Phosphatidylglycerol--prolipoprotein diacylglyceryl transferase
Amino acid sequence: MIGHTLPLFFIPSPPWREWLLFGRLPIRAYALCIIAGVIIGTIVATRRWIARGGSRDAVETVALVSVPFGIVGARLYHVITDYQLYFGPGRTWYRAFFIWDGGLGIWGGVALGAFGGYLVARRRRIRFWALADALAPGVAIAQAVGRLGNWFNQELFGRPSTLPWALKIDPQYRPVGYEQYATFHPTFLYELIWDVAVAIAVIALDRRFRLGHGKAFMLYVMFYTAGRAWVESLRIDPAHHLGPFRLNDYVSGIVFLAALLCLLWLLRNKPGRELVVEGDRSVVGERPGSRAGETPPVPASDSFAALDQSEPSALDHPTTPEHDSGTAERAGGGPR
């Protein structure tokens, strides 16, 4: 029976969540985890972007804009979806600005962060979806590291549990109705492991199939939302419910379906990946006036024609003997 008695094995919670620098300046573990996640994620994304042919400083420039945008968006999402924590009788509205106390909504962060990245990409003549593909695993890694902040804050844990990896929560952080329980599901750890697995899976699939035009990013969104839906089913923190499910469950489902439809459309209409990911497209063969991300046909005599074509992917139609013979017939004026 789960109760006050601690199981033999459990994960302890940190005894502190902040330090005082010089005896007066608070340094909060939650903020340090977010910063560490951003740094590690940026390193991963930069390596991938350079491998795609981009410049070394592009991701750093994007991060300088998209990270603040993302933090603001994440906080807005949290405040809007959990407004009862900040507005109403007995509540202090200005605590909505106390971001160091925790409370970030991933979907607001991804949406506004992506918008900030788009603004930079447009200004620097970067193909946005190629950039998103490069960033996707780094974003997942940043989320994984950031989840450690929930551990320090003793927040967003799951149902009571006596599993060997159950998380001990101090009495003052246990929600109403669960005061008698000592250990809970460590949902921060579940999502941390899942986020790392998502990053590894996206990198592996990208290497195998040479994904482009946003396909790797869509896979990241699909994988993340699938795991997030399971984690949400374990959590017991206060949240808005629509019927039997939490609001975040519906958001995850909608985002998953949207990413799936986008991926299917991209596989059909945008095969391969971009060869040119950054710079003045008119210099590398893309005709002025063409829409970003598209590669209009060019004369065979154009010395840069090869750069205008998407690099073939293993997801494209494979070459078979029948395909080769059909190609030969078409070249010779045969049936089409």
